[in-house]
Input
Amino acid sequence: MKSQYAEELRSGQTVKEVFVLSWKSIKDKKDGGVFAVLEFSDRSGTIQGIAWDKVVENIGALSVGDFVFVVGNVNEYNDRLQIVVNSIKRIDDDEINPKDFLPRADEDIEQAFSEIDEFRNNIKDLHLKQLLAAFFENKALIEKFKLAPAAKRVHHAYIGGLVVHTRNVLKLINKVNDVYANLNFDLLIAAGILHDIGKIYEYTYTRNIDFSTQGRMFGHIVIGYELVADRIKQIPDFPESLRLRLLHMILSHHGEYEWGSPKQPSFLEALILHFLDNLDSKVEIITSARKKNKGMEKDWSDYHPFLEREIYLREED
Amino acid sequence: MKSQYAEELRSGQTVKEVFVLSWKSIKDKKDGGVFAVLEFSDRSGTIQGIAWDKVVENIGALSVGDFVFVVGNVNEYNDRLQIVVNSIKRIDDDEINPKDFLPRADEDIEQAFSEIDEFRNNIKDLHLKQLLAAFFENKALIEKFKLAPAAKRVHHAYIGGLVVHTRNVLKLINKVNDVYANLNFDLLIAAGILHDIGKIYEYTYTRNIDFSTQGRMFGHIVIGYELVADRIKQIPDFPESLRLRLLHMILSHHGEYEWGSPKQPSFLEALILHFLDNLDSKVEIITSARKKNKGMEKDWSDYHPFLEREIYLREED
Amino acid sequence: MKSQYAEELRSGQTVKEVFVLSWKSIKDKKDGGVFAVLEFSDRSGTIQGIAWDKVVENIGALSVGDFVFVVGNVNEYNDRLQIVVNSIKRIDDDEINPKDFLPRADEDIEQAFSEIDEFRNNIKDLHLKQLLAAFFENKALIEKFKLAPAAKRVHHAYIGGLVVHTRNVLKLINKVNDVYANLNFDLLIAAGILHDIGKIYEYTYTRNIDFSTQGRMFGHIVIGYELVADRIKQIPDFPESLRLRLLHMILSHHGEYEWGSPKQPSFLEALILHFLDNLDSKVEIITSARKKNKGMEKDWSDYHPFLEREIYLREED
Amino acid sequence: MKSQYAEELRSGQTVKEVFVLSWKSIKDKKDGGVFAVLEFSDRSGTIQGIAWDKVVENIGALSVGDFVFVVGNVNEYNDRLQIVVNSIKRIDDDEINPKDFLPRADEDIEQAFSEIDEFRNNIKDLHLKQLLAAFFENKALIEKFKLAPAAKRVHHAYIGGLVVHTRNVLKLINKVNDVYANLNFDLLIAAGILHDIGKIYEYTYTRNIDFSTQGRMFGHIVIGYELVADRIKQIPDFPESLRLRLLHMILSHHGEYEWGSPKQPSFLEALILHFLDNLDSKVEIITSARKKNKGMEKDWSDYHPFLEREIYLREED
Amino acid sequence: MKSQYAEELRSGQTVKEVFVLSWKSIKDKKDGGVFAVLEFSDRSGTIQGIAWDKVVENIGALSVGDFVFVVGNVNEYNDRLQIVVNSIKRIDDDEINPKDFLPRADEDIEQAFSEIDEFRNNIKDLHLKQLLAAFFENKALIEKFKLAPAAKRVHHAYIGGLVVHTRNVLKLINKVNDVYANLNFDLLIAAGILHDIGKIYEYTYTRNIDFSTQGRMFGHIVIGYELVADRIKQIPDFPESLRLRLLHMILSHHGEYEWGSPKQPSFLEALILHFLDNLDSKVEIITSARKKNKGMEKDWSDYHPFLEREIYLREED
Amino acid sequence: MKSQYAEELRSGQTVKEVFVLSWKSIKDKKDGGVFAVLEFSDRSGTIQGIAWDKVVENIGALSVGDFVFVVGNVNEYNDRLQIVVNSIKRIDDDEINPKDFLPRADEDIEQAFSEIDEFRNNIKDLHLKQLLAAFFENKALIEKFKLAPAAKRVHHAYIGGLVVHTRNVLKLINKVNDVYANLNFDLLIAAGILHDIGKIYEYTYTRNIDFSTQGRMFGHIVIGYELVADRIKQIPDFPESLRLRLLHMILSHHGEYEWGSPKQPSFLEALILHFLDNLDSKVEIITSARKKNKGMEKDWSDYHPFLEREIYLREED
Output
């Protein structure tokens, strides 16, 4: 855990801490020589930096995106704080804790994950049970699952977002299952757990949350399909009809072609998964728009480009 | 209750029963004179009729849509059954039971209505309680509410459909409310009960299910808005913020402009109502497509023009 | 009427005038103490302001959007004019004249309103006459009607814009009625007068033109529908068919679902109202794009995002 | 002028008249030999025909679409009338009057045309005057102009339809010009007269109304553009700015790319022409839907696929 | 190879041949007893059948879709030919040759396949070579590849269609590669061969061409992705970058989300594959529309619902 | 040819060169008097300028867009280079070489044009040969053809772009013609040469690449149609069917209404031209996105607003 975060620095402080180098630009001084304008980031936000001659030589070897250990002092310049850098050096990725550098869930991810695990444990269908066990016993994969965001920008765009979103979808499934008779509950829960599993490879989430190349090339729908299809092949006698349904639910969970699903939901469980996935995403978008505007006096948010509307912010009277 | 239904008639039977006259055509016989080709309908379906000279004079005074008491015999002509009509006369609307002539819910509407009523009784907010009481104490309106369909064609298109759909939405609201903290549950339930209330005037559902002129002109969204806005005016000190929210939820429950809502949902409860209304409608569409194909051997329904896809029909293995 | 407007201030002038405080930001001085960066607005535009220590204490209590009486001097800083504020205090809303603070119509609103009134007086249908009288005898409502804009941004976005737009639509109706036989002229005129009446509550237009919360929640179409529907209920024997037509025309005047109408025009008068409303809006958009570019040498406007095209600006040769 | 029309024939009559042969099919008789099933059309509608052995040899040489002189008797077969053909022979196109075979305007086309001519005569701009004179002095072209329909199916789909529609658009222009100051009235009138001139070549309208190959390949917008552009080249000193405006108005009069205009209206006159053209088309669609349903008891038309809605049919109370 | 095809049967012939039973309906005779109305199909078309009492018992056990060996005589009834069935019995699927029952390519599939194989043999990249070898050495799969259609209805909807379409795309790739420098030709060819490989499982094409359940659930894009991804896993050291590109090309070859691709082409080779796949499909649609209208006198096809236009049919002059 | 380009200037240099004056702004100095802030452009890019009192009087008479001969010195101000202007004067358009001021093709335009000419020479159809000769013998037109860009922004937006794009389309046609039998090759080549000919008047490309007024009013599709239609009229006995096809190909080459074509391609050659035109445009967009990102370390371009996606930039491994 870091002890100094970018947003908490104050003028006059001494800095000895790791940041992501999120911008660098070498410039000529009017009187000869060079200086560097820098930007340092962590999960709290960003702060400007400036480095004079003697330091600049070290900066030449750094790339934007590197983790760097910075020593310097904070002062104010043009109404903004900046770190005057005394020394700076690259830090290996495995020396840092990603949670320090990326926004993370408000709630306890281990707790949310254990809720998912409980849903899994209640599955009675033996083939689905076996399938999910194969995923949950894969420690490396589960480690990623707990870190992955659920989106780059739009919703649950933070470390742990995938777990929070998946847990919510499972809770919704669990509830909606009470309303309609004759749903295949085990299928719904299994598909609910796995529907976004491809996101663990769709995104990178070490230094910053972005799409991976595989993510841009295939998308989480197809990546997830492949992960699940591959596991199923290793389970003897996995029923064909169950395989078709489960994989179709992953493929169709975005609901419409234009939202990136290569197939539309064609039976009840697939339709319900799509609706509940969509519902939780939209709820999160509105919830975080409200959070962002917390404490402001306005009744309405600015125009939200993804939802294409303004959001009403006023708390209940 | 009728004792003879169109679909259950068999060749050789004597008919003495009321039907809707759903088609009539007077034709010239080759040898002079006239005869009438008729069609009779009830909630079970339709049967052809034929009437010879002496009867035709009575038919001139009848209009398509009239309830008629028919006496005759069933025989088979060109592979189809028909009633050879001996006598036919108009029956007043109030002598018939609409349930005989229109498709109706499979389940007990009174029971479904009492579930709605229980949700209503659990509302704690005094203004919403008062508002809903005003509706539920209006016997004539509740009578209509219990008869109204939820659609002309697409979903819950039968007597009692509105009650079944409303009850389902309330059950979904009740469940989803457990998943998300800080929702205004009373508001959700009140809006859930009232969201489609305009349908009692949007449709006609005596002889057949069709749009009323008011329904085509205004639509159930605006009719419902007006019904609720009018009641609120009669309740002293109904909080303005509550009024805005509740009425906005009615206006926005179709979710998008192109689906007929003049406003998009702009806060969480409005968004959730839209999703759950939409979910229940789609579930019903798939469920009835499955029913319609029951017993057929095919795995996939025909192309469903509203859903724009085929539906997978196969039961779990 | 104000005597000093933001856009007319010149370096060296003394200011003693009321403005809207449209921005404020308290900042730390490098040498300790604070200062405030401000922005003042009126119907002519905006001017920056700066207030040093002694004044800032007064500013803490002011909100953006307040009317303030400012005493100070104009100077130039960084190529821009600013008011150096000597004193500033809040003014009550009822001490100001909204016309000073909001853009207003080029033409005489009273004159335009009297043209509307003349159209009203020529209505022969007694029920419509009575209905409109009820509106026009409501002084408070007519006062608002004369102030309301016809839009926030796109067209007639100024004080009096609603009157100007309504008058234009009536003139167009009056003309088009000559071309087609058998139109219900009284219905067209009545609907023309009332079609946008909901805008008097859809917008706020005291300090600045914006949507009201009710406006965002319901929109002027539904607000107008309700206003008219409520009045009709108070008129004995208002014919049902006339009620359906008139209210349908209000609901359908945007023509298409995606433009916010919950119903599409379903008879000639409704269709014509939609076209003429749309025509006048678009004419105004082009006219004001031309005004904005007046005196510039270019033949084509910049890309107009609402019309999705460039507009040809060249005057006739 | 024909003396016998298909729709007016009655069982027992002798037929000696010209029709379009709109269908023919040669069939084998069970007992050897052949017979022909035929269909005859004119502007009133169609009637079946049957021709036995001796006549069939003449039919072999006839093509569907030919004008034929038919001698025979009307009888009734399977509840439908048919002509039993005694003799049939081809008639040259120039021996018939197209007005007998195609639906035509209800009103007097010469009168409507003279209204157009009057608008033309009031144009003051000398170049536009000269341009229009060139068209109106072209007898052959004007002859076509008076015959051409304004559409194949949707609106004004009858002989004379182009004149009726053009006249209506001019009347609308004339009226709307009174409402907005500073419009170029001569330009509007000239463009109004010429906007659909390409339709005289887009359609064929001798035997039936259909697209010509040129019409399908280029469309009336481009055909009209070319006709007008060519004429302008022959007028000395036709002002370039006027040429650009007039031709742009023809190209953009459908208003949007998806409605077939290669450009969107980019100045006021172009915008107004588009709206008024569109308005008159839609008015005609509704008017003819009403006509078609005249005398029926229903309040609403069937779903109109072009307008994508039902039309309210009820006359004023 | 069958010796009798449905379309070639003539009245009076004796039939002893296999057909698909494409319709059956058991009916009551007026005088007691039952008879069966049947329909028999093969690749040439269909013919009606009728079976009297003694035969009907055998028909009860048959399902629509069965292959049946029929003995009977052809006669004519109501202007249509029919087989009067003397005996009928089920035939096993493996006794028939699918080519007899399904439309097939005009050209020699073996020849077209060998052209594909030659393209494959020219690939130089060793990993792609190895990958394709794995497919081409799989006899069962190649057998299916040679039978599969390229569509159910729209284009290349016949046995061998997939080979013809694939070969065409390869020829186009080969040509276009000459125009643009620096394309990865091996990648283009490999992706060209494999882009529609999923169609061998998307369709069923034994009795008739239809979607398989897997086809409806996953679609050929995802099925093909999985087939190729699985093979790649078995090839040691297959370069990751090549894997990403090749699989992305399969996923994105429909070009747009609304055409069923879960990703849009993101580099040149992917874009080119999409265009050439699309081009060959459209060329085939127009070509077969022309074939279908061959010999007719008309210049224009009927409205083509998939292309949303009429097609010009006239041959060069 | 200029000897000094904006992007190559360095601090300390003396400037004596022609530029486009691309921005000017006269400002008051704090101490009285005025100065001018300027921007100078050429095909390499832009550089700021500043002019003090004595020079400003000359600047008053200059318009943005003028070519100006500038004498001055380069220095650095606020980290940016600027020319301190000593003298400035207007230069006539005919004294400059447009190639100095506009981006131009990387390749030799004369060479690319000669490839087009060779395709032309291979046309065998005498009428098409004659038509194209008429264009190619028009020196002034060909001069423009060699300069014109193929777009303002999206693709081939540089001097010579039209020739490069046209040559590419011809090469593609030439190749694709080998794949499909029975195409009219001469027609394809002629239409390929002429499809974008209207662009020589759609754009202005002397000082900067922009739309001409005619271009905005008509678009290159209609301008090209008119150019070709006019030439055809001068060729005796040009076959009507050929005229229809060729002109239809020009009109429909954008393929869809929403992409600006007033007609959709209705036969094979028209369809193929559309696809190949589209393919070359898209290839160029991706190619230049790659060029723009050359040397950067990133794997993916920024979001490309026209293609609505990111482009994969990584070179083959």
Q: What stands out?
A: Chain B has a mean pLDDT of 90. Chain B has eleven helices and seven strands.
